[in-house]
Amino acid sequence: MLETLALWIIALVERLQALDMAAFHLINHDWIHPALDPVMVFLTQLGLGHAQLTLLIPLYVWGGPAGRRTAILCAIAFLVSGLGAQILKNGIPRLRPFLVVDDCRFLTGVLRFRSFPSGHTATSFAIAWVAGARHPRWRAPLLLLAALIGYSRAYVGVHFPGDALAAAVIGIATGVASLEEGRRLDRRRAAGLPAVPPEKREEAGVR
């Protein structure tokens, strides 16, 4: 039974990899146009960490109390999702498409890190989910922008679509967790309790 299960899992992984490769060829090789190239490069640059954090600064400075809180929660979600993506990259030895696909269109600089998952996409979805939850009118455009950033990663040849899809899940999960942690802190503050329970502070050696 275990042997059958192992064979089934191997077959499933191979099938998913084949679908991922086929989707990559469509996005990177077939669904292309010269006019789209600079647009996709611009979108992929929006996923850079310094670009995303820079965009949060006006929200923090001029957004009032609600905007300031949103910027802080977005920054937390950004850091956690980015760190999580980097940890997975170090543990999963998947090479970038431009290293393994012969006809890959490569439109950006050489990257040193592994392919799975896409850090740009993870942080984009984390920020979009938090900001969209706190400001509902922003939800659709922000999630669309995050999806386009993920799409651009395959278009420019630095990620497989599966890398971006997994990163979107990571980003959304991180966004949900960040929002819930913010609500937990609000409840404790409203009850006049410290943000960190005394027993947790003692465990961490904090006085």
Tally of DSSP helical segments: 9
Rounded radius of gyration (Å): 20 Å
Name the overall outline.
globular
Distance between the termini: 54 Å
Number of strands: 0
Write the element-wise H/E pattern from the N-terminal end onward: HHHHHHHHH
Q: pLDDT under 50 segments (min length 5)?
A: none
- Largest β sheet strand count, sense and barrel closure: none
User: Structural class of the helices, strands and pairings?
Assistant: mainly alpha
Could you report the average pLDDT, rounded to the nearest whole number?
Answer: 89
Helix proportion = over 70%
Proportion of residues in β-strands: under 5%
Task: Please explain how this structure is put together.
The chain is mostly helical and 207 residues long. The chain has a domain at 43-98 and 113-190. The protein is built from nine helices and no strands. It has helices at 2-30, 36-46, 49-62, 64-91, 97-100, 119-134, 136-155, 161-190, 198-203. The protein is globular and about 60 Å long. The model has no long low-confidence stretch (mean pLDDT 89).
